[in-house]
Write a structure and sequence with these properties.
heterotrimer; A alpha+beta; B alpha+beta; C mainly alpha; A: alpha+beta; 3-stranded antiparallel β-sheet; 8 strands; 46% helix; 13% strand; B: alpha+beta; 4 helices; elongated
Chain lengths: 370, 149, 336
Amino acid sequence: MHRQALTEDTFYLNLGPQHPSTHGVLRLLLRLDGERIVECQPILGYSHRGHEHMAQNRTYLQFMPNPCRMDYLSGLMYNHAYCLALERACGLEVPARAEHLRVICAELNRISSHLLWFGAYLMDLGAFTPFLYAFDDREDILAILGLATGSRLTYSYCRFGGVRDDVGQDFLEGIRAFIPKMRARLKDYDTLVTRNVIFVNRTQGVGVISPELARAHALTGPCLRASGVGYDIRKAEPYGLYPELDFDIPVRAGGDCLDRYLVRVLEIEQSLRIIEQAMARLPGGPVKATGVPQFITPPPGLYHTSYETARGHLGIFLAADGTRVPYRLKFRVPSFGNLGILPKLLPGTLVADTIAILGSMDVVMPEIDR
Amino acid sequence: MNALLNYVREVIGGTWSLATGMGVTMRYMFKPVTTVQYPRQRLPLPAAFRGPIELVRLEGGDHRCVACGECFRTCPSGVIKVQGHKSVAASRNQGRFYFIDFARCSLCGLCVEVCPEGALRFSRDYEQCGLSSLVGVQDLMAKLKEEHP
Amino acid sequence: MAWLSNIPATVWEGLRAFLGPLALTMIVGLLLTLGWVQVNALFLVWLERKVAGHIQLRIGPKEVGPFGLLQTLVDGVKLLGKELITPAPVSWPLFVLSPILVFAPVLVSFVVIPFGPGTQIRDLNVGLMLIFAFGGLGVLAILMGGWASNNKYALLGAIRSVAQNVAYEIPLLLSAMSVVIMAGSLSFQAIVQAQEGLWYVFCQPVAALLYLVGATAETNRAPFDIPEAESELVAGFHTEYSGMRFALFFLAEYTNMFIVASVATALFFGGWRGPFWPGPWWFLLKVYLLIFVVIWVRWTFPRLRFDQLMNFAWKYMIPIAVLNLMVTAVVLKIVR
């Protein structure tokens, strides 16, 4: 947006890159008429680290720690997706136990991501306390995942053809204790937040996205499903263990902030269901395929893998040239599409709504900037 | 009349939702504290904790490193430098220096995984800090000798 | 040793003779008030942090002093030591004046707070009016500060503050008026005296609730903290303030809480009335219980949006307050 000559009753406001609720380093250049937004332009690129370029300069195994650092909130899912892409390219078989562990950990990661979003969103709306309750729950998940992966944020747990290490009894018991606790907490969240008249008023009918608009802007994940389009990679292009599991894809028709909130809360419940099923049928056996070379070399060709992260459709496009190093590794990240709709959505709303809408999109800036 | 009824219902419903919300926070107020008072209390580290690496110490203060170079070839950040020498007594290569720059290490743990001799492991020391990035450069062999003279 | 214990009385008599009784009460009252304002703010900030901590499964301050009681004192000392930054493009007379102006009316309001039967600096026959009049001055100071800061966030905060106060003064006054009709006086002592048998909260529950909601908005506290909404406007009207100037805004906010809670206590909760203990103890106990409720509310609810707040005031609070006032008047006319 070129800064046009200002008319007398509008002015520019830089929301970010340092602002309490831009979640990372996003800058929104707003043109305001009083408190009403006339024009909005998101400005990106403040945390560009060149991950895709790094991929072209190191072997496939060496790139393993990087995907977790793009979307640090669903690190395990990125890691899973990256392994999935390589396994598909090389035709590797993954042992059943490893598949189960991957799904359990990925869904735990999805819950922790949604919980962090939940807390941060409520903080954007001015309620500080749910943030700490969510972090209390999230702490349990991080401790459980720490038992399996040895790390709390950048897990890097999956390996080509399996997972890094088998889990112990403490991991399984931790999850068994966590599931009922989380269910009880969801009831409290329902009373404290979902039914709260102030919260409902702040989110209902705010930032409505029609299904057509959502499709036109390539929205994915909960943002898309809140607009009435029931598209989820776990059902549309199933991978791993998902075709064998029984779970629902929550869909809401309204397309406003409240629906985006509800879809995520319902997804937490579905993730708990998935974890329960996977735990019930967790088989024994090895967790790593044998005979995976250290310098994994996919045959030359173009490969594409889709994955459903906590934010939506992650696409990994791999161009392999038969060497140990990818020729090109391109990530299609969900947050980019979800953020791109803001210039369409914001004009006409108030500054307070800007925060509510931006928060409801659940963007993670390092994922967009990479 | 209907509008008036709705109005009354709205007021009562809204007030009720606020009251129940306050009930939740009041209940949580009497729940036990979940935070850990860090310098005085510490969380237990998981057995699989992925900390900064260290050399596995053998009986007599020795280590297993043969300076094969797997770790520094695998390291994504390129922060490891290993140098060994031919040991006549052991009739094999033996590591002499193991330099790693923890300031740039991303704690991915690939070095531990690829080590064919099992010479590396994760330490449980998560409180490393310093005033300069040079503090991160450490010789693990020297550290091993320092800690177990 | 008898002469030693006579010293305070001797000094008192001497000063009384020298200054005259009125000026003396004023000076002593002012000094006491200034001290009380500091102690009260320190205690309230501590209480707020402690309550917030326990609501959020934390423990709040605990390092400095017993139970962390001195934490706020240390923070205050830190603020005193900070540089007073005056950004170049501010219009500085207004910028400097604003924190003083926000603090002064709060201080004056202490004149009529009825701590006990005789423990009051002056019992004015328009005490309630005085508090509301000076309460209205605070918003002027906020507007001045926000405007003079020459910062867009501060300006937006100032605009919001004015609109909010215009909307909330009305239900606040209307709900207080229904009590005034019942007591037949604007003097605090008379209102407290009138609650001899029954506290007004029992015959005026709606007015009490409206007053508390209005008072929360009046003091810019969550869920009505839109002028300083930190997730939207960074820090709102005091974005550009630092050091002791910022601390004055802070001090004014917490003292204002004390004032509105005192007024609520006097109007609805029987003031200093209570068995066994002397009046001031009861009064303070009730005030801090009310403040606890306000803090509890803050740490439970999300913030309202600017236009919803206006809607809430004009659509719900003002009609209900007017209705309540009319019903009170009619019932009183019939009964008496």
